[in-house]
Structure formats: C-alpha cells, structure tokens
Amino acid sequence: MLFLIRSFCRLPMRYAGAYNIGPFQGQGTAWSHSLSLRFPIALVLSIVCLAVPAWGDFKAGMDAYNRGDYATALREWRPLAELGDASAQFSLGLSYENGDGVPRDYAKARQWYEKAASQGDAKAQLYLGMQSSFGQGGSVDLVQAYMWYSLAAGNGNAHAPGYRNDLTRQMTPAQIAEAQKRAREWKPKTP
Question: In this predicted structure, what is the pLDDT of residue 47?
Fold first, then answer.
C-alpha cells in the first residue's frame, strides 16, 4: 500500500511499506532490513563529517597564523580550545605569549598552556617550563620548571632535556629531588 505523507514543509514524501508490517510478512521485512542498514551507515557518515571540520578549522587557523592573519587564526582556534583541543589550546597560549593578534599577556598564555599540558601536550609542557624558569605569567619556580621540562622530555620533546640540564645548575639537590617526585606523581587529565 502506498501512502502520501504531508510534512510541515511543502515537499510530498512517499512511504512504500505494507500496512501492519511484521517480521514474516512479505515485502515488509526487506524494507525494514534496508532501513536498519541505513541507520548505522548514516551514523558513521555523520560522525566522520562532524570530525573532519574540527580538524579543518585547526588547519585553517594554522594556515592563517602562518600568513600573519592572526585574527582569523584566533577565530578558528578559540572554539576548538574551549572544547578541549590541546593543539588549539597551545596555539592560543603561544598567541598570547607573542602578542599575535591579541595584547601580550603571559598570564593568559600560561592558562592556555596549562590546559594543553594537563592533557600531555609536550610543547605546552616545555613552554610552561620556560615560563616557570623566567617568571613569565607567575613567579620564578625552578622546581615547577624542572617538573615541566621532565614531563615534556618524557613526552618526546627533544629540547626539554637540554633546558632541564641547564636548570639543574641553579638548583639544590633537594629541589631537584622534589621536582623529580612531582614529575613522577603527575597524571594527565582528560578535557
């Protein structure tokens, strides 16, 4: 039986299915089976389509940043950063630290770096180590700096071991032991 369904919009929709469709009633099973396959396919496609624009926005932000179009870069990154994207959070922190498209603000840079570093972002951990070493965005804290450098090194940052080794010349053995303890006890957080 063929029905004409009128929706709220002005486009007529057709429904081809037997009235009183059951699992063993002729063509109704083929129709419901094809519908049951369409849902998972549509779900997977929806997820892929939603995930791709998020990466596209970050890449568009990087392209804009590299062109010197900082306003566009910030506009692309901010929503991603607020949703917990560690790369976007690091990039916003770098923009605040350098004053690219925003007034230079070490405290705001530190806040964005901390969000990215708490998820295990090695670049953000390295930059937090540098900020702690030089007192940018807060007071000088050599123990905290050593901890961040150690975490960045553990996450594969090639520059962090050198910074950490240079820092040890300014620290006491007790400070180094405390920093190592903090680094061992540190756990990444999920956004």
Answer: 52
Residue 101 structure tokens: 């498209």
Cα-to-chain-centroid distance, residue 50:
14
Closest by Cα among 183, 184, 181 to 173: 181
Q: Where are the domains of the chain?
A: 41-185
CATH number for the segment(s) 41-185? 1.25.40.10
pLDDT mean for each 10 residues of the chain (191 residues): 44 47 51 55 51 64 94 95 95 97 96 96 97 94 97 96 96 97 88 57
175 CB burial (10 A radius; 0-12, 13-18, 19+): middle
Residue type at position 117: A
The model carries a pTM of 0.70
Would you state the pLDDT for residue 15?
Answer: 44
- Cα(170)–Cα(179) distance, rounded to whole angstroms? 13
Contacts of 40 (CB under 8 A, 6+ apart): none
